[in-house]
Structures are given as C-alpha cells and as structure tokens.
Amino acid sequence: MSAIAPEGSGPQTACRSRGIPSSGQHIRTFHNRGGRMGDRHHDALERLWPAYGMSVSTEPLDATAVFGRSAPLVVEIGSGMGDATAAMAAADPERDYLAVEVHVPGIANLLGHIDARGLRNLRIVRGDALELVRDMLPPDRLAAVHVFFPDPWPKLKHHKRRLIQPAHVALLRSRLVPGSGVLHCATDWAPYAASMLSTLSADPELVNTVDGFAPRPPHRVTTHFERRAARQGRDVFDLVFQRRAA
User: Fold this and answer.
1) Is-above-0.70 flag for pTM?
2) DSSP string, the chain
3) How buried is 58 (Cβ within 10 angstroms: 0-12 exposed, 13-18 middle, 19+ buried)?
4) CA 110 to CA 37: how far, in whole Å?
5) What is the rounded CA–CA span in Å between residue 56 and residue 15?
6) How many Cβ atoms sit within 10 Å of the Cβ of residue 11?
7) At what angle do helices 190-202 and 166-174 cross, to 10 degrees?
8) Is 131 a known ligand-binding residue?
9) Is there a binding annotation on residue 128?
10) 101 assigned to a ligand binding site
11) Residue 223, marked binder
C-alpha cells in the first residue's frame, strides 16, 4: 500500500500536507500540533509510511485490498503516540485497525510499533477522521469506532469543536454494522462525559450497553492520558453504545 501523496513528495511531506481540504467544510475538532522528532521517528517515516500509511482523500477505501484480507474493521480516532493502539491491535489479531491521527510524531511512533511488533492488522491514516469516515468508508461496515480521550474543548465558546456532538455521532453511527457495531468513547473530563452520555443516549439508532457509564472493558488498554488523569485525581468515564439492528 503506497501513501496518497502529491507528486515528488516523501512520506513525511505527505503526512504534513495532504488529507484536510482548505475549504473549511466543517469546524475542526482537533489541534493540528507540531512536535520534535528524533532520528528513530524520521527513519520510521521514511521506511514504513509507504507500506502502512495513507492520507485522507475522497477515494473510497478498499479495506480488503489494504489489509490483504476481509475482516471486521475498527476505526481508532486519535491514536496519539500509538502505544495503546498498537497493544490493542496486537491483542486482537482477528480484526483490522485503522488508526486516524494528525500528529506526525505520533504517526511515526506508531509506525515503529507496527514494525517492531510485526503487526499486519494495523494501518495509519493522516488527516481529519470525520472526512475519512464521510468520504472513504461505506455505511454499515465498521465493527467499532473508538474515540478515546478526545480534546474536551472545555471553554464554552469551543464546545462547537467537540467531536462527540449530534451530527458527528450520526455520521459515525451510520458506518457501524447494524445490530453489532459499537461506538466506544472514553474521557477524563467529567463535564464532557456528561455531554457525551446525553448526546449518545439521544441518538435514535444507538443503544447504551449498560445503564449510564460503562466499566472500562478489558480490551481498552490504559492510555497515557488515563495514567495522567489518575495522577491528577480525575475519574475516567467509558461509554459503550451499540447500533440498533436495521
């Protein structure tokens, strides 16, 4: 699988420059952060991006061709540095994982995990997750969507940037397999957790798998954000909703 990149550009340039249209089709739900990278990360991008990375585009994604098999597909929105994502993919070899991230050092780090662990069920997409879901993934296809520790945008004036809001949830839910597909969210920001619970509960095609917040499922690996929240005395809230049968 080769990277979707402008002519004449290398993998790192592809990561930085492609995937997010400049026309402002919707309000971004993420910070497009920079970051310093060492030689290890530069090497991972150069060697591994063409095989395991792609950028968001308007071309439909053929997951069978990308992964070389037909398997349940999980979309991981905001994989960060990728440690938890790699661990979950390694522990779940029967499903394929598509990690969506904009942070280039995190992408490079996850590429290194793919290589070191020999993961064949994990690929990385650079760009806006909402555009990936909208333009590249067909309805009724995903086994799960993971939204772990998204930016809480705590200021009231920034709430419009939150990922979990009705229109975005409707889009994500539409790509889940009816009757079995799961939308799993987690946050350490209590006000956002309450908002998430209200928003997900209000969606007519989603059903809460428990009464209120869910216990952390064993398959959700503890993330850097979760460990930091624990050190700072904040609770972590999981929300696990399933799409209704058609």
Assistant:
1) yes
2) ------TT--HHHHHHHSSS-TT--S---S--------HHHHHHHHHHHHHHEEE--SSPP-HHHHHTS---EEEEE--TTSHHHHHHHHH-TTSEEEEEE--HHHHHHHHHHHHHHT-SSEEEEES-HHHHHHHHS-TT-BSEEEEES-----SGGGGGG-SSSHHHHHHHHHTBPTTT-EEEEEES-HHHHHHHHHHHHH-TTEEESSSSSBPPPTTSPPPHHHHHHHHTT---EEEEEEEPP-
3) exposed
4) 13
5) 10
6) 26
7) 60
8) no
9) yes
10) yes
11) yes
Q: Which residue has the tokens 């919707």?
A: 26
Low-confidence ranges of the chain (pLDDT < 70): 1-35, 37, 153-154, 157-158
pLDDT of residue 40: 73
Tell me what pLDDT residue 223 has: 83
Q: Consult the annotation and say whether 203 binds a ligand.
A: no
> What pLDDT does residue 245 have?
97
For residue range 19-71, what is the model confidence (pLDDT) as tens digits? 323 334 566 655 565 567 677 778 889 999 999 999 999 999 999 999 999 99
Q: Which of 92, 151, 203, 238 is catalytic?
A: 151
Please name the CATH architecture into which domain 11-243 falls.
Answer: 3-Layer(aba) Sandwich (3.40)
What are the DSSP calls for 114-181, one per residue?
Answer: HHHHT-SSEEEEES-HHHHHHHHS-TT-BSEEEEES-----SGGGGGG-SSSHHHHHHHHHTBPTTT-
CB-CB contact of 213 with 184 (8 Å): no
238 tagged catalytic: no
Q: Say whether 155 counts as a known binding-site residue.
A: yes
Distance CA 17, CA 11 (A): 10
Q: Tokens 């996850």 correspond to what residue? A: 110
Tokens at residue 183, please? Answer: 């939308």
